[in-house]
Amino acid sequence: MPMTLAELADRIQATLIGDGSEVIHSCAPIDIAGRGQVTFLANQKYERHLEQVTASALIVSPDVNVSGVTLLQSDDPYFAFREAMVALHGFREHPGRPGDRAGGSSIAEDADVADDCIIHHGVVIEAGVSVGSGTVLYAGVYVGRDAVIGSDCIVHPNVVVYDNSRIGDRVIIHANSVIGSDGFGYATHDGVHAKIPQAGVVVLEDDVEIGGCCVIERAAMGQTRIGKGTKFADLISIGHGTTIGEHCLLVSLVGISGSVDVGNYVVLGGQVGVTGHLKIGDGVQVAGKAAVVGDLPPGARVAGVPAIDLEMAKRNALAGRDLYGLAKRVKQLERELSKLKDGD
User: Fold this and answer.
1) Higher pLDDT among residues 65 and 223, named by residue
2) 3-state DSSP call for residue 51?
3) Are 172 and 190 in contact (CB under 8 A)?
4) Is this prediction's pTM over 0.85?
5) Is 240 one of the annotated active-site residues of the chain?
6) Which CATH fold topology does 106-314 show?
């Protein structure tokens, strides 16, 4: 929605430095933003673009001074930019009207589906299911027997919610994700992998967001639980019986084995792997591609394979950048040492 810079500054609670009368209509990246657009600077690597900024306004921290452009100063410029995106662009609008039931959908007679839900084509809702007010189920969604989906959820196309799964309010699940499939549990006996019944459930608490093509396995016993406010990127696998705490961030291709206890506000970078039966404390940060094979205390910052203290991992990585050259130098030193010994 177009608005003046003064109006935007008020909306995002920023301090306006410059002309507030110009009308803006959208946000754009700092390197391509033009007139009528607002951009932001929250990462030092983009400072090289400051001299060429042509946007109508720039959201920055109070210690950044740039001439020739109106500034919107904020103590948290990245969040202020988020607020500007909401003000100018809003969130994706979902097709359909409250109460729509598209043809081709199948809803069990005893399912409790709120009247204002939007049900798209090809949705299947089995017996005993409960779906809360304002929830949208896109085409091809399957909801298994006795599952619960809360209010104001968005379930994108071809998501599968297995039986007895529990999903809270304002949860977003992106396309092709699977909630509540069987855990990877087998007992090997006489050379045969015998399947262990997976009798538990998956619980997604309020305000969780699950990216595309993620799989969260049900517990063999008890729960696999994802804490409130936690966000997943795409292609993430969570093993059975694992608990993820509140407000965690998991980047794409994370894999967590079964029976792991992850604390609150944990960040796992892309392609992190976590072996089973571990405890990861609150506030832990794990760099991309790390392999976590032991418990991590609260606040730990780790990297590497296996994961070790981040600073030590950096030093190891620097030392290992030219292993071939290092090996050549060692061999040369060995030859010289051998000559010295022979000379004695």
Assistant:
1) 223
2) helix
3) no
4) yes
5) yes
6) UDP N-Acetylglucosamine Acyltransferase; domain 1 (2.160.10)
